[in-house]
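Entry:
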Amino acid sequence: MTRLIASWIFSAGAIAVAAWLFDDISIGGAERSDEILTLAIVAAVFALINTFVAPVIKLLSLPFIIVTLGLMLIVINALLLMLTANIADWVGADFVVDGFWTAVWGSIVISIVNAVLNAIFDVAD
């Protein structure tokens, strides 16, 4: 349970960093509390997509991942970030990823920040 909560918080932090770095990734809200609530919702949607959708897509794309020496994973992660934005919009959270290349760079930043946070804070189950 601790690991799940830590993963959710790390994802929220990584998404916040990506939104801070790129103008085309935005977390909306009239006030700071609205932004934090939106970020929590987006992180939950992102975690659910990475838990249930990502493994299936990566398994089905395995031949392409192998042929491209793993570069296809960047494209898959970018598309999953765009899917997160679409689902977040559907549930009423104001999260926007404007464009494929922004999603590519945003997914790279999110992956790096998540890896760093997981390395720094080694949370046991």
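The helical segments are 2-21, 32-60, 62-67, 72-90, 100-120.
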